[in-house]
Amino acid sequence: MRGRDRTREGDASPSGTGLAPGERRRLDRQILALAVPALGALVAEPLFVLVDSAIVGHLGTAQLAGLSLASTLLVTIVGLAVFLAYATTAAVARRVGAGQVREAMQSGVDGMWLATGLGVVLAGVLLVVAPWAVGAMGGADDVARHAVVYLRWSSLGLPGMLIVLASTGVLRGLQDTRTPLWVAAGGAALNAVLNVVLVYGAGLGIAGSGIGTAIAQTAMGAVLAVVVVRGARRHGASLRPAAGGIWANARAGAPLFVRTLSLRLAILVTVFVATGLGEVTLAGYQVVNAVWLLAAFALDALAIAAQALVGHGLGAGDVPRVRALLRRSLQWGVGAGAVLGVVMAAGGWWFALLFTTDPQVRTAVALGMAVCGLLLPMAGWVFVLDGVLIGAGDGRYLAWAGMLTLVAYVPFALAVRAWAPDGAAGLAWLWLAFAGVFMAARALTTGLRARGSRWMVTGV
Q: Does Membrane appear among the keywords (predicted)?
């Protein structure tokens, strides 16, 4: 039975203090024990984008701009399916906290079957609608041609990538973030080698980049699936697809799908604005966005730790521990955001040299990264709070809050498209709207929720 929070000990404020030094050190060890390995696994996806951007960027500005459109669509699709990981993490962690390990593994297996079916369907659809999707994003001429080529080849890796999400969610719920780390590291290395060999060695151009990414993602999915299947067998869970279990996973993930949809729509609006500001702005956006994703996923490692620990704590009914985790995780998130922000703001020009030889694009990248770096501490706060509420299973609130923040952001983004200049200045204004206005709206909505206790529902 699911029970309401009956414990009122502790400070409900997310910024409250009151941890004894010994308790703080213990929480730090638990958070970092999960967050550090999760960091390696999380940065695999943005590393794929970074590697592809670095390799394709030296083919030409049109190829890099085409990759920007195609990778945005792919990341959007994968991002919309992230509920496969998030919902599974929360469900598995709660059941493990309540001592129901076999049921936890069964939920994970059902989630992987759901991921397989979705991946196959989405890959087939994307192969057909790729030209229309690129055109809807504003792509034209050479940029559109390169985007369609990359999109179609890389779509073949979608089933593998969705299986990665579901199986990673199972392992996170079991508080195993090391296995996804090693698999992600191997996949990133394989992706880099295949891209160089296929793009330049085989002379396949941007198509080779898409093929290499698809192969690496499929390999990662296969390895993680084997790990979860072995664990399911060990605990007596069935490996057969169960319609009831698959439907339960889909229903539990629906609010998180809506929440993620709001985030991805905001990103699509941002790319739409960048496209309207010209080729230089769009190419610069691709580079800045790749680095932003890397920093965001690094900060999200703390959110992943919070998801698993909060889910386990609520499953065990330990509300004071959950409150303490909330406070300490937020302190880590803001601090890490500040450190990464300094690196990002100060290193923009040097990062730009790795991705393009166009001086206009380099200037745009440097200015855009300076804006992002200044705003990254607030993003650290947002990502951790998001992870805490996901771990608590508060998906319905996150869905409503996500749509509200999207409504608040869109007018600012469209104003940038209408009035901002193209080039470096336009890119700076665009990132100020996204990393500033949009993130501030998310910080407000999640912060208000975390100050209360309605999200602290205990039990399975």
A: yes
